[in-house]
Structure formats: structure tokens, C-alpha cells
Design brief:
- About 40% of the residues lie in helices and about 10% in strands.
- It has about 400 residues and is an alpha/beta fold.
- An 8-stranded parallel β-sheet has the order 4-11-10-9-8-7-6-5.
- The longest helix has 21 residues.
Length: about 400
Amino acid sequence: MGKIESQWLSSPSRRSAIRSLMTGFLAGSPLLRAQQDPYRDHSRVPALREMITPFDFEPVAYAKLPRDAYDYTALGVEDEFTLRRNRQAFEWVELIPRGIVEANSVSTATDVLGTKMAFPIMVAPTASHLSLHPEGEYGMHKGCTAAAGTPMIISNNASLPLDKIGKAAAGPIWFQLYPKETLDDYREAIEIAQDAGCKGIAFTYDGASGTSSTGPRERVLHDRHLDSQRQVEDLKTSGDKFRATPRRPRRPPKYGLTGSTAGLDWKLIDSIRAMCKVPFLTKGILTGEDAKACVEHGLSGIIVSNHGGRAMDYGPATIEVLAEVVDGTQGKIPVLVDSGFRRGADVLKALALGAKAVCLGRVSRWGLAAYGPAGTQRILEIVQAELLMAMASTGRASLDSIDRSLVRTDFS
């Protein structure tokens, strides 16, 4: 066979060429609500029982989600330095074992401000769960309850009504409160949360101003021309979750700020705290000085947080400043922490530095997006099991036995 004939046999036909062209067009089309998994060389979605670590869930979530929904979960602000530092800082904390105990003899039960929990682990408040799974926050609450009754902090920007989320499962719930425009707005949101059965209210100001005042979330800007199902679904289902009547039009933002943190002061926080019948915490504390002020103003607790690297870039990792914040409270109020936590060993390091409990954000979202409520349950149970094994391996049979002698840090 000659050279020309060989080339003809191996060249694409018109039909195959058109088929390849159409396949490429469809693969890049925004009409498709999921993209190929870049982490694996095949398209098979693993069974839930094959999930070994929390990190196994992220590529499955990526494969199942539309681009803008995945990016909303994964993003950090601006250059995403703080997002990366939150994870990197755990490498600067070493665990120092002291003997070994049986894993089945380890006790992890605790109580945080009246909320009893089997493990010192909670689910952090995150928005727009309907973009992850059709059951949205209902599914997240079901998964949390199935995972040893893990408490769930419901986001101020939840996709679904707060009272219905509370009724979806039996596990304990708290509420995340963002800054509002007036004291009446605060009062209404707090009353709705308390009526829904929330056992704590975490007032969040780290990033509540939105993208204009904290720096742009650049992944969102890159995705702005995609068909955003996340925004569409939220608008369809949530409406205004905390009002019986439509919200009045907002005033034009001053200096481009989209939120309300510019007007926050301790006098306002004192007024908000007085409205609460349940424990009132602040979320976003990163210094010992602010922690001391929280104690002086009678707050019930603190959540050390940088909003998962989504609020201000080039800030410290929360694990770096945790001990300073704990020292600032002088043991008078409990300190919780979030941002960057993925493994049971991460949780143990935070407990050793003085945290009462750890809140998981992206981890729980990966579970829900990948496998629904069962995925949330499974990923939380993996972290719980890892914490048990880490405690056993370092010779700590109870939470009371965990102290700073368990870790060696190098944050310089």
C-alpha cells in the first residue's frame, strides 16, 4: 500500500471530524452543568464506601458541580494567599506523642455553651447549599444529625427557610448572624432564629461587607458570564428568609461598600447581645486584644475565623493566632475556630492550642455535593475517626488531657 493510501486510511472522515467538533463544543458549553474531573484519568465516580479521606470527596464534588458552584466553594479573596496559608500553617504544628492508648477507650464528648456533642466538631456556616445538592440545607442538617448529632451552624445566607431547616432533622442548630441595617432588622432575625430552635447565635463580621470592601473574589468575576445556577436556585427558593414582608430598597452603598461592617462598634454589639436569649458569640476574632474586649463586653464565646480566606487577603492563618486569642480570654469564655480544617489531626492541633471545638466548612460542602446527605455524614465520620486515632496515637484518652504540651509550633 502506498503512502497516500495509508494517509487516507488513517485520516478522519467528514463524519468523524464533525462528531469531534460537536463533542468539543458540547464539552465547553455552559449548558452542561458539570465538567470533567481533572484529577482522575477516567470518569467513574467512586462509590461512597471507597472514600478514605476528606480530600477524596473534593474531586467528586468538582466533577458533579457546575463551574460557578464549585468555584464559589473553593475560592479565596484576591490572590488567595490566606486561603493557602490556612492549610500551610498546619505543617508548622507538630504533634508530640506521650504514650499510646486504646482507640476504643478515647472519650470525645463535650459541651459547648449548653450544646452537647459527641465530638468537638461542628459544621461551619456556609451559604447556598441548593447549588450543591437538591436537598440543600435540609440535606446538610440530615447528614450532620446522622454523624453522631454534629451541630450545624446555619448560614445567614442559607438557600432555604431557617425554620424548615431546623425541622429537617433532630440535630442541634446554631445561627450565623450578619450585620443588618437597623436594630429592628437584628431583632427580627434573632427572634426567627430562636423560634426555630437555634441554641446559639454567632455574629459574623469577617467578610460580611461583601466583595467590594474586602477585595474581589476573582473566581466569581471570571465566572460572571456563566449561566449561574447557584444564583438562580437561591432566588427561586429562598426569597427573603427572615421577613414576612418584602425588604425595603437598600440605600446606595457608600464608597462602594456593599455591607454594614463600616458602622460596627461595641455599643451596637452590646445592643444586639441584649436581644439574645441564647449564647451570643462573635465570629472573626484574630487577636488577643479583641478577645479581651469580647470578655469585657459579656459575650458568651468566640469563633476564631478569617472566613476561610474569603474576606481579607494576606492575613494570618487561624491556627497561627489561636493560642493568642485563647490567652486573651483568660479562660473565661470558650473559643472555637474554623478556616482550613480538613483532617482529624488538624482538629487535635486546635484543641491542643486551646480551642473548645472546631468548625468545618468546605469539608461538609464537599460531602453534600459529592453524595448528598450520606456524603455529609460519611465525611464527618471520617474526620471523627481520624480525631479518635490521633488522640489514641498521642496518648490522650480524653479532651481534658489535651494541652499545649501535645504540640510544638514554629510560626516564625
